[in-house]
UniProtKB/TrEMBL annotation:
GO terms for cellular component: plasma membrane. Keywords: Cell membrane, Membrane, Transmembrane, Transmembrane helix, Transport. Signal peptide: none annotated. Residues 1-20 are annotated as: Disordered. Residues 85-443 form the ABC transmembrane type-1 domain. It holds the Pfam family BPD_transp_1. It is a multi-pass membrane protein. It comes from Streptomyces triticiradicis. The chain crosses the membrane at residues 29-51, 89-109, 121-142, 323-344, 365-383, 423-444. This is ABC transporter permease subunit. GO terms for biological process: transmembrane transport.
Length: 452
């Protein structure tokens, strides 16, 4: 009787389904215990700041007065914000397109290079450089001074090789010494002269380094007698080192100015041209009777070519995009190269056997097969360029910062960089988040689709 009662009171044996349910519950508990620290960090570092920024965007600069959607209205009335939106649109269209195209071309070409691994390593190395260091590098490379900026040094060298430079950019005539300055920067004789005379054209302001090494004293040349049908003259430095000498006269120690262009004008038209010799002398032969004016053209005094203003208002955004391309081209090439390596080679070989050339294979087979990879690379870069901040802030100088600003830099400037309006800055952050979310959702769906 007692055994029967004990048997009836004991619980029924656990079934296989019960044991499985308990195992799943224990597994979920253990998984939650491992995931909980990551969820706490995600909530503290991502979810809470996002929610706080959304709420903060509805308050004024002090954060004490609720203003509703005024910050969002002000955001689209501010010219600086409109310019930031425009520049961000330029970044989104230009940078990912160029990077995807460059990455595709380089990935295809690298397959045909003997040292492909070394080439990929060289192109990928900029990814190891921080945006801060890359910004400093390109800030120096874009410097307008050719002695500092490597790009302008190359541009100036090419320009000077084909065009040449003026010999005496700082030279000028003394007041009241027989030369008057024209509206174009040239100098001409005040009083007309006639053939058979010698003209002295004295200049000052010539830097010692601008004086050619082969320059000789002009004293003897200034005292040569001109023939009746020629007009002689000398262009000299009207300055004696150590003092002394007489203004307006060629003294014994005063140097001639060689390689200057001199013109003879009659009735306002150039009738003859000459280049000064080592002692600064020149002469015009075969001139007819009459009065002439001797002129030193403005090309003798033109300032040296300084190159391109890479960081000026017109080119600062393309310049910063160029720095971004230098950093991220290797990333695009490696991802597209991985997709290229996974392509079925039998399709490519079949096309070659059918007589297709390499361009046809690239355009009609390689690119269509790589379309999923290209889309992922493009969308990833779109997300990245929407958040670009470091390069714009470091490379763009202060005076043109507003011309180069994007949404991320504008958000920082409005909130912390002097604006001190965190309500408007939060609204800009929310706008940036709303622009990034569609691209992120698209990328996540692409990844899920590829996993299936």
């Amino acid at each position: 009787m007692t055994a029967t009662l004990l048997k009836e009171a004991s619980p029924p044996p656990a079934t296989l389904a019960d044991r499985r349910r308990r195992a799943r519950r224990r597994g979920r508990t253990v998984a939650l215990a491992f995931v909980l620290p990551a969820l706490l960090l995600l909530g503290a570092l991502v979810v809470y700041p996002v929610l706080f920024s959304v709420g903060r965007s509805f308050f004024d600069a002090s954060g004490t007065r609720f203003v509703g959607g005024d910050n969002y209205t002000e955001m689209f009335r501010d010219p600086a914000t409109i310019k930031a939106v425009r520049n961000t649109a330029i970044w989104v269209v230009v940078a990912p397109t160029l990077l995807t195209g460059l990455g595709l071309v380089l990935a295809v070409l690298v397959e045909k290079v003997r040292w492909a691994t070394a080439f990929k390593l060289l192109l990928f190395m900029p990814m190891a450089v921080s945006f801060l260091a890359a910004g400093i590098i390109f800030r120096l490379a874009y410097d307008e001074d050719p002695d500092k900026g490597v790009l302008n040094a190359a541009v100036v060298s090419v320009h000077d090789a084909f065009t040449g430079t003026s010999t005496y950019p700082t030279a000028r005539a003394r007041d009241g010494q027989g030369l008057t300055e024209g509206a174009d920067g040239s100098y001409g004789t005040t009083a007309p002269t006639t053939p058979g005379h010698t003209v002295g054209l004295g200049l000052v302001g010539v830097l010692p380094e601008d004086l050619p090494q082969g320059a000789r004293p002009a004293y003897a040349a200034a005292r040569r007698t001109a023939a009746s049908d020629e007009l002689r003259g000398v262009v000299y430095l009207d300055f004696t080192r150590g003092g002394g000498g007489e203004q307006g006269r060629t003294d014994r120690n005063e140097s001639g100015l060689p390689e200057m262009t001199v013109e003879a004008l009659r009735d306002g038209h150039t009738v003859a041209s000459a280049t000064t010799a080592a002692d600064g002398s020149f002469r015009f032969q075969g001139l007819g009777p009459g009065s002439y004016t001797v002129r030193l053209p403005a090309s003798n005094f033109a300032p040296p070519y300084e190159g391109v203003s890479w960081l000026g208002p017109a080119l600062v955004t393309p310049a910063v995009i160029g720095a971004y391309l230098w950093i991220w081209t290797g990333f695009a090439m490696v991802l597209i190269g991985a997709g290229l390596a996974a392509l079925p080679r039998d399709a490519l070989e079949a096309a070659r056997m059918d007589g297709a050339n390499e361009w046809q294979i690239f355009r009609r087979i390689t690119v269509p097969l790589l379309a999923p990879v290209l889309t992922v690379v493009f969308v990833t870069l779109v997300i990245n360029v929407m958040k670009v901040f470091d390069l714009v802030y470091i490379i763009a100088p202060g005076p043109v910062q507003e011309d180069a600003t994007v949404l991320a830099t504008q958000m920082w400037l409005v909130s912390f960089g002097g604006g001190n309006n965190q309500g408007l800055g939060s609204a800009l952050g929310v706008l940036l988040l709303l622009l990034v979310i569609p691209a992120m959702v698209f990328n996540v769906r692409r990844f899920r689709g590829s996993q299936r």
